[in-house]
Write a structure and sequence with these properties.
The chain is of the alpha/beta class. It is about 35% helix and about 25% strand. The chain binds 1,4-dihydronicotinamide adenine dinucleotide and 2-oxo-3-(phosphonooxy)propanoic acid (HPV).
């Protein structure tokens, strides 16, 4: 039974779902990094929010971990590249808390415009300072949205509903989408110069860190206000403090901080600053949504192999997963076969899906071929990291699909080009489930790959098979099955042998086989 750890505060719905799906679940919140490190090895899945930091150290200790599920959106607390290297799928719930967070940004804008928190505190204190608090009206003001994705676009529509003029900066916002939303797409400098309210809604990345730095803040309109319900690192807090002190910026509403939990921050105590403790996603509706979604996603993955909302893996639906599984096995064998016989640097890989398999979701299949192919060549590679490893090494990966297939219901052809040559291997499924190699370098065979194989290219000469059998037998290696194929119908051309043997092929046996007359190449393979 798979085991999941919930290490941040999630709605109890998550635990109910894990249990109902037959997954063992422990809830341990508030763990220190060392405490998490000590126990993480026991778990197949980890469900988190923003408090748990999934660092390299944690991932190194997570020897059984297969999936991290973030009940929420931002994954800047997870080392996603390292998780990919380790083969850990990282998922989030991209929509579950978007409306709630957008509403928090709007609430923060109102709080800023009318100084509600300050007026609330003053009134509770019995001061009745009616003349102290003079607000600004939102209608007709310009709202500048930086990052117009899920949350930013909800904020935009709410802003338009308040009769604000909405402008947005987002390099990935298409002009059509901007028209649909009713926002004006602008450049960052333009937005900064024009907005009365700037609301941030980008992820925290190397590109967005400090997007509102001292220079950007200096170029904002005098008396503008800033709302940040995205991530702390987007604003240079020291620069913001200086701009608030000078009166250049009239106010800032911050839900997120450079350092969290934020117990001590230079902006605390300023009467122009409204703060909440990272409450953007904190409504019962949003927390129910994200807990339910993350628990279903983690369960689906651990129980069926379905992948939803993963940041480092192609999606696979629960319906697709069982159909893909036998093809994945075949892809793994094709990739591994090609990887084990490859001796020089890989330049390109072409995977051709023919027949019924061409209609399936082939991205996970391609990832599996690449894992098989790169496994013999790289220290540690998995389905998550293989496409990245191929890209980083400049290996061109080409995928083609044809609906027709001459002899089979489905056929997968892998063609690998190295510095020296191009090789190909083709496979199919027998009975929709059993992988079979049906062609190697254009030579037809029909071979099932066992755990240990001997692969030979030889000149097709009389007596060769006999001497091969004797040589292997003399080395104490038992043959389980023997598959032959040759290039030409006439004897004398190139032939291949795929011999399944009981146990690994000893080095001496391989050397003896390699030394036989007519052998062009001999390789011991394992699957
Ligand atoms: N305060 C809170 O509790 C919450 C905070 N968040 C934060 O909000 C962020 C946004 O969430 P979503 O809208 O769901 O994400 P999203 O991925 O739908 O939208 C982000 C947008 O930012 C844009 N973007 C990326 N780089 C940019 C750049 N350099 N300049 C301008 N735009 C850029 C993207 O094109 C995308 O459209 C999350 O990454 C998360 O950090 C999310 C939920 C709750
Ligand atoms: O979903 C997000 O990105 C959030 O920032 C919400 O964070 P939380 O789950 O409330 O710790």
């Amino acid at each position: 039974m798979p085991k999941v750890l919930v290490s941040d505060k999630l709605s109890p719905r998550a635990v109910e779902i894990f249990q109902a799906r037959g997954i063992e679940v422990d809830v341990k919140t508030g763990l220190k990094p060392d405490e998490l490190k000590a126990i993480i090895g026991a778990y197949d899945g980890l469900a988190i929010r923003s408090a748990t930091k999934v660092t390299q150290e944690i991932l190194d200790a997570a020897t059984n971990l297969k999936v991290v599920g973030r009940a929420g959106i931002g994954v800047d607390n997870v080392d996603v590249p390292y998780a990919s290297q380790k083969g850990v799928v990282v998922m989030n719930t991209p929509f579950g808390n978007a409306i709630t967070t957008a509403e928090h940004a709007i609430a923060m804008m109102f709080a800023l415009a009318r100084e509600i928190p300050q007026a609330n505190a003053s009134t509770h204190a019995g001061k009745w300072e009616k003349s102290k608090f003079m607000g600004v009206e939102l209608t007709g003001k310009t709202l500048g949205i930086i990052g117009c994705g899920n949350i930013g676009s909800i904020v935009a529509t709410r802003g338009l509903g308040l009769r604000m003029k909405v402008i947005a900066f987002d390099p990935f916002l298409t002009p059509e989408r901007a028209v649909d939303l009713g926002v004006e797409k602008v450049e960052l400098n333009d937005l900064i110069a024009r907005a009365d309210f700037v609301s941030l809604h980008t992820p925290l990345t190397d590109k967005t860190r400090g997007i509102l730095n001292a220079d950007a803040i200096a170029r904002m309109k005098k008396g503008a206000r800033i709302i940040n319900c995205a991530r702390g690192g987007l604003i240079d807090e020291a620069a913001l403090k200086a701009a608030l002190e000078s009166g250049h910026i009239a106010g800032a509403a911050l839900d997120v901080f450079e350092q969290e939990p934020a117990k001590d921050n230079p902006l605390f105590g300023m009467d122009t600053v409204v703060c909440t403790p990272h409450l953007g996603a904190s409504t019962s509706e949003a927390q129910e949504n994200v807990a339910l979604q993350v628990a279903e996603q983690i369960s689906d993955f651990l129980l069926t192999g379905a992948v939803t909302n993963a940041l480092n893996m192609p999606s696979v639906t629960a319906e697709e997963a069982p159909r893909l599984r036998p093809f994945m096995k075949l892809c793994d064998q094709l990739g591994s076969f090609a990887g084990q016989i490859t001796e020089t640097g890989l330049k390109s890989v072409r995977i051709e899906y023919q027949g019924a398999v061409a209609d399936l979701n082939t991205r996970p299949l391609t990832a599996t071929v690449l894992r098989g192919l790169l496994s013999p060549l790289l220290e540690s590679v998995n389905m998550v990291s293989a496409p990245l490893a191929a890209r980083d090494r400049g290996i061109e990966v080409l995928e083609t699909k044809t609906e027709t297939c001459r002899d089979y219901h489905s056929l997968i052809k892998l063609e690998v080009t190295t510095e020296r040559q191009t090789r190909s291997v083709e496979g199919t499924l027998f009975g929709d489930a059993l992988p079979r190699i049906v062609d190697i370098n254009g030579i037809g065979v029909e071979a099932e790959l066992g755990a240990n194989m001997l692969y030979l290219i030889n000149e097709d000469k009389p007596g060769f098979i006999g001497s091969l059998g004797t040589t292997i037998g003399n080395a104490g290696v038992n043959i389980a099955s023997f598959h032959l194929g040759r290039a030409d119908t006439e004897a004398g051309g190139q032939a291949i042998c795929l011999v399944q043997v009981d146990g690994p092929v000893p080095d001496e046996a391989l050397a003896a086989v390699s030394a036989l007359p007519h052998v062009v190449q001999a390789k011991a393979l394992s699957f």
